[in-house]
Amino acid sequence: MSKALLQLDGVHTHIGSYHILHGVELAVPAGQVTMLLGRNGAGKTTTLRTIMGLWRASAGSVDFDGAPIHRHATPDIAQLGIAYVPESMGIFGDLTVRENLLLAARCAKRPADIDTQRLEWIFGLFPALKKFWLYPAGKLSGGQKQMLAIARAIVEPRRLLLIDEPSKGLAPAIVANLIAALRELKATQTTVLLVEQNFAMAKALGDTVAVMEDGRVVHAGAMQQLIDDEALQQRLLGLSLGAHQ
After folding, report:
1. Segments in the chain forming alpha helices (H)
2. From CA 20, how far away is CA 57, in angstroms rounded?
3. How does pLDDT run across 19-78, given as a tens digit for each residue?
4. Do 165 and 236 fall within a single domain?
5. Chain segment 183-206, per-residue pLDDT in tens
6. Where does the record locate the signal sequence feature (predicted)?
7. Which residues have CB under 8 Å from 196's CB, separation 6+?
8. Which residue of 12, 18, 44, 235 has the fewest CB atoms within a 10 Å radius of its CB?
C-alpha cells in the first residue's frame, strides 16, 4: 500500500451535545480511491466535514501529507489542495455553469483565465457542461448538477477530493457516466475519499475501503477483499455486493 496522504488518528467529533465520531482511525493512500462505506447514520458525512474543518474535531488528529490540519480553518484546508463535494452538491443555482466554474477556479478572474486544456478535459468527462455552458445551474438535471459539482472540485488540480454520495438519486445511465468520469480522474493519480451507498460504484472504483459503524471505523482493507467475501459484506453492511451488480 502506498503512503497515506490523509491520516485520521483517534478523531472524535461533537455536534452540539451529540457525540458523533468516536475515535475514527482512517488512512487514505496517496493516488488511490478509498471508499467510505456504512449504513445511514454511521458517521461518514461527519468524517468528511471534520476533515474539511466544517466541524472541528474535539479530540484526535487529522494529518494531511504528514502535517496536522485539524485546527485549520476551512479556507486554509482548501488552499492545501483539498476539495469537497457535499451530498447537497453546493452549486449556485442562479449562476451559470460558466460562472460556477469560474468561482471555483481560484486563480482565474474571468473565464478566459481558466486553463483551456483542463477545461477541455472536463468537457470530455462531462459533455453536458459544454452544451449548457451559459445555462443557469439551477435548471440542470440532477445528474448534470452532480457533474457540475465534481467539475468545480477539479477545475484546478487538487491533491485530495472528498466526495459525498455522488450517485444518490441518479438514474443508472447517469451513474455509469459518473463511474466512467471518476475512473478517468483516478487514472490521473488524484487521491479520492468517496462516500457511497451504490455498491456497483464502490466495486468499480475502490482500491481500498473503510467501513463505519456508530461513529467508528470497524473494518479497513483492500476493496477486492470485501468484494470477494460475501459473508464479510453481510456482516459489515447487511448487504451483498453481488446483489448490486
Report:
1. 44-51, 74-79, 97-104, 116-125, 127-131, 142-154, 172-186, 199-205, 223-228, 230-237
2. 10
3. 999 999 999 999 999 999 998 899 999 999 999 999 999 999 999 999 999 999 999 999
4. yes
5. 988 888 899 999 998 888 999 999
6. none
7. 35, 36, 37, 165, 166, 167, 202
8. 18
**Structural domain includes residue 196:** yes
User: Are residues 216 and 123 part of one domain?
Assistant: no
Three cell numbers written together for 12: 472524535
Q: What are phi and psi of 36, to 5 degrees?
A: -110, 105
86 found inside a domain: no
Give the domain extent around 14: 4-81+160-244
In this prediction, what percent of the chain has a pLDDT beyond 90? 69
pLDDT at 91: 92
Residue 210 half-sphere exposure toward CB, CA atoms < 13 A: 24
Return d(Cα 102, Cα 114) in angstroms, integer. Answer: 7
The predicted structure's pLDDT at residue 90: 87
* Domain presence at residue 126: yes
Give yes or no: residues 47 and 24 share one domain.
yes
Residue count of the chain: 245
Instruction: Specify whether 164 is located in the same domain as 75.
Output: yes
Distance, CA of 204 to CA of 183 (rounded, Å): 8
Amino acid letter, 220: A
Burial of 185 by CB count in 10 Å (0-12 exposed, 13-18 middle, 19+ buried)?
A: buried
Q: What is the DSSP string of 201-234?
A: HHHHH-SEEEEEETTEEEEEEEHHHHHH-HHHHH
Average pLDDT over residues 111-121: 85
